[in-house]
Amino acid sequence: MTGTPLAVHGLRKGFADRGTTVQAIDDVGFDVREGEIYTLLGPSGCGKTSTLRAVAGLERPDEGRIVIDGTVVTETGCFVPPERRDIGMVFQSYGIWPHMNVFENAAFPLKVGRAKVPKKEVRQRVESALAAVHLAGYEGRMATQLSGGQQQRLALARALVRRPKLLLLDEPLSNLDAKLRQAMRAELATLQQELGVTTLFVTHDQDEALSMSSRIAVMQAGRIVQEGTPRDVYQRPATRFVADFVGTTNFLDGTCAAGGRVETTVGAFDVAGDGGRAGADVVLAVRPESVRLHTDEPVGTPNVVKGEVERVMFVGECVDCHVRVGDAVWVTRQDPGLAARSGDGVWLELPADRISVIA
Ligand SMILES: Nc1ncnc2c1ncn2[C@@H]1O[C@H](COP(=O)(O)OP(=O)(O)O)[C@@H](O)[C@H]1O
Ligand SMILES: [Mg+2]
């Protein structure tokens, strides 16, 4: 039967910790679609690894149901052990065996467990897995002689050698140095797409999540607080936590007025849509790159507020211009040609369709 590659429902897991219970997973549910990269994103300790381990069968949840490709693997009274789940996994530390060569490492999952794979087939499968991750020709090399990026790809080959229905990746790039990590993002996403393997990805790195995912679930304290495409999560954060965790955001407290307007201490702003029930307290969230800075007062433009430049930081392809507005400092991202210096008066335009209204 072909069902959803992965369906998780009502997952809960608590850990005893010095007399109290840490609720590592607190009613988590999500569905992963065929061929996508579905990402659990959140700060350290929010329950990402625990959730992934529950899917892998390395952790027994207290409650909940996990279905992999139409087969129930976890439910009250039912627990399929990890080796009988149709999954491949790459951990943060790749867990590559230093005393084995590349071939032996990749072949390892085929040599343990119940289903003995014939020798000839082992060779074929390993060769195709290594080819898939662009490591063909490296079979005889010791694993320790590979670069960080190559070890990363070997770990991936090993996870794929059993041709799993589902690939689980737990912070697979976090051990690489910054430059390689960035290159591997694109490489991993491309590989995943070529292989078409449905992937559950775990990371605390928002750039990684935004650039690689089909969909993202943002987690906070054991719960999923928002699910959506990278664009949804970035441009329409559902909570202040999401806006703050995923990228840099400026916040402005306000109160809804009639007709899609929100009153704040520095003025009233038009927002897209109806803006919310009149009288409701809201927070306006605006991304640094969404603020348009004017060095002359714009005439007839709505949603403009005056500020004073605190500092201008050149960061190469743009400048980060910090502007004091009332008693807050706004972070804005501007073209490097911006002619403004600290102490200058400027006008910040907040386009209505770039303001997120958070209830
Ligand atoms: N085996 C364990 N024993 C006790 N507490 C644990 C255990 N595993 C995880 N936790 C706790 O559960 C919470 C979630 O951990 P984890 O799932 O590893 O988070 P993340 O991967 O998002 O950093 C943390 O508070 C962590 O300390
Ligand atoms: Mg973790």
Q: How would you explain this protein's 3D organization?
A:
The chain is built from eight helices and 21 strands. With 359 residues, it is of the alpha+beta class. It folds into two domains: 6-240, Rossmann fold (3-Layer(aba) Sandwich), CATH 3.40.50; 248-358, Beta Barrel (OB fold (Dihydrolipoamide Acetyltransferase, E2P)), CATH 2.40.50.140. The strands form four sheets. A six-stranded mixed sheet has the order 7-8-9-3-10-11, with helices on both faces. It has a five-stranded antiparallel sheet with strand order 2-1-4-5-6. A hairpin with a 2-residue loop joins strand 4 and strand 5 (71-75). Helix 2 (102-111) packs across helix 3 (119-132), helix 2 runs parallel beside helix 4 (148-160) and helix 3 (119-132) crosses helix 4 (148-160). Bound molecules: adenosine-5'-diphosphate and magnesium ion.
